[in-house]
Amino acid sequence: MPRVKRGTTHIKKRKKLLSKTKGYKWGRKSKIKQAKEAVVKAGVHAFVDRRKKKRVNRGLWNIKINAFVREHGLSYSRFISALKKNNIEVDRKILADLSENNKELMAAIVNEAKK
């Protein structure tokens, strides 16, 4: 069997790794071992934070809805409860957007829920 030399493959692999760590601080951008660790940790954080983003956004939607609803004499929990009792099925993302950008329509929803 002929001998296989892997110099080019090895160099490509390292170049690819170092291109991922561009902009990192200290040795993490230039030293192979530190760069490997940095890339693995960055991947882990990216994975976790994609899920965390959903939690954070839902919390922001709740805050926006609560701020709008309090001006109309309700609390957030009572508003959501009233929506469920009156079978008004609008999700929190849409409610938050309405409370920010379309106040008249949101006010109509609040009045409908109060009944």
Structural class of the helices, strands and pairings?
A: mainly alpha
Order of helices and strands: HHHHH
Reported CATH architecture: Orthogonal Bundle
What is the radius of gyration computed over CA atoms, rounded to a whole number of angstroms?
26 Å
Strand fraction equals under 5%
What name does CATH use for the topology? c-terminal domain of poly(a) binding protein
Name the poorly predicted regions: none
Within CATH, the superfamily carries the name Ribosomal protein L20, C-terminal domain
What composes the largest sheet?
A: none
Helix content: over 70%
Mean pLDDT: 96
Distance between the termini: 84 Å
> Total domains, how many?
1
Secondary structure: number of strands = 0
The helix count comes to 5
Mind telling me the CATH class? Mainly Alpha
* Mass-distribution shape: rod-shaped
What's the structural blueprint in terms of helices and strands?
Blueprint: H1 7-20, H2 32-71, H3 76-85, H4 92-101, H5 103-114
Question: What features would you describe in this structure?
Answer:
- The protein is mostly helical and 115 residues long.
- The chain has helices at 7-20, 32-71, 76-85, 92-101, 103-114.
- The chain is rod-shaped.
List keywords for this structure.
5 helices, 115 residues, mainly alpha, c-terminal domain of poly(a) binding protein, rod-shaped
